[in-house]
Amino acid sequence: MARPREFDEDAVLEATIQCFWRFGYEGTSVKDLTEKTGLTAASLYNAYGDKRGLFRAALDRYAGESVGNRIRRCEALAPLQAITTFFGDILHRSLNDRQHKGCMLVNSALEVAPHDAEFQKIIAGVLARVESFFHERITAGQADGTITQSLPADVLARHLLGVLMGVRVLARVRPEKALLEGVIAPALALLGRADGNASQPLAGSDRLAKHH
């Protein structure tokens, strides 16, 4: 039977997320983690095994709370509104990220996934969930006539995933409103129906801002 945690695990994982998110996996030392969490190295190792295990727990928590919660909120909206609101939230987060941390998941995809099969699988699974969200909303929008049928849903979903990744990487080095909107807006316009019912880019960002 597993021993109960002798610390506030939510607080420890939140501090851990902030550490890995800002400095990356390689740039974060055990000393950084002990200072941020307030735990000794022995306590961290007893609870999570090693730095790698702690990173895995932090990445899982980030994916569930940041990516997962955003998808669940947007899934409740009408198809086209769901997608524009999703990107509105991404834009808000990117422009208000004072430390230019970007997205921990995307950062990890660039830093860790290329040479680590386990983390590549974990990150690919989360990105597949995002792509599936896009696909589901596009399919629903094509069915109700609010999203164009000029391209297959799977093609549009993959395109939106690529736009999302690009925006989050750009935001780390050039968090400029005009630049990021210039990437997002054409992608959303592409979803509009051929009869002129184009999407309203970035709708809903203010409403979701409190969740960032």
From TrEMBL:
Residues 6-66 form the HTH tetR-type domain. InterPro entries: Homeodomain-like_sf, HTH_TetR, Tet_transcr_reg_TetR-rel_C_sf, TetR_C. Pfam families: TetR_C_13, TetR_N. One of its GO terms (molecular function) is DNA binding. It comes from the Bacteria. Residues 29-48 bind DNA. Keywords: DNA-binding, Transcription, Transcription regulation. PANTHER family: HTH-TYPE TRANSCRIPTIONAL REGULATOR YJDC (PTHR47506:SF1), TRANSCRIPTIONAL REGULATORY PROTEIN (PTHR47506). This is TetR family transcriptional regulator. It comes from Pandoraea thiooxydans.
